[in-house]
Amino acid sequence: MKKWISVFLKCIIAAIAIYFALQQVNWEELKNIRWGVSVGWLIPAIILFNCSQFLSAYRLLQFYKLLDSTIGYLFNLRLYYTGMFYNLFLPGGIGGDVYKVFVLKKRNLSFLQLAKGTLLDRITGLIVLLAIMTGLTNFISASFRGKDILWILFFALIPCFFIFWFIVNLSFKPFGKSIPGAALLSVLIQTCQVLAFFCILLFLQASPGELLSYAILFFAGSVVAALPVSIGGIGTRELAMATGAAYLHLSGTIAVSASLLFFFITALSALVGWLSVKHNLLNELKHKEL
């Protein structure tokens, strides 16, 4: 019962957030976009997004391999996409991260260790995302209150990362070995994601001179979407980007539309990924055909 109450509340929050985000959309501006002119930008957007997911699956595998070196990349990639599907389409059931841990536990691995590895993978990615977001603020032309604080935060995140790495080495053995590599992979992952977002912006015919400012909003929205208050982050990312667009004097229409298109690409990729592996994943686990 508590589970369904939580799902209901998340749906309410998502609906409210979407409602307020859509208030920032100028429908006339949306109608004036020449959709057929730049539709080709969606293809590299989809490719780049899925490249980021292939890298994310590889990053997570570096943590899991410390527990079982026989886990193969293709198996983990299929597991990763299935987890994406559960996060987006089955929010009332088992979460994607829990699903991955549950499946791998069948290999006689420690549930606690698997959970730790999954969590550390997430934290590493979040630290890198925050560092990129705060660092890029120094390169946008827009001036806003708090810009200097974000630049200070960027420099503060550097020692924070090394403190995090030290704590992992001390208290979460053996995962400390994977942290440096995971951080470098996180940079590549975020690069692929922001390039995918740029393609979406170009599809929406955003001004090339404003792409970096929209990238800041994208990273900020990604941080907000990671909070477990909505279904798959839907609504909260859009509201964060709409709010930030008004703050940076950017188009709320483009910010919200780009965010929704990014979500649709995520959902489409998760659905296709799940459909392609649903009959094979547990069979591979059973027969260990890795």
Give a verbal description of the structure:
- By secondary structure, the chain is mostly helical.
- It has one domain (2-287).
- It is 73% helix and 0% strand.
- The chain has helices at 2-22, 27-31, 42-64, 73-89, 96-105, 111-136, 147-171, 179-203, 211-225, 236-247, 252-277, 281-287.
- Helix 6 packs antiparallel against helix 9 and helix 9 (211-225) runs antiparallel to helix 10 (236-247).
- The radius of gyration is 20 Å and the shape is globular.
- The two termini are 38 Å apart.
- 39% of the residues are buried.
In short:
Helix 3 (42-64) packs across helix 4 and helix 4 (73-89) crosses helix 5 (96-105).
List how many beta strands DSSP finds: 0
Range of helix content: over 70%
Mean pLDDT rating: 85
Number of domains: 1
Order of helices and strands: HHHHHHHHHHHH
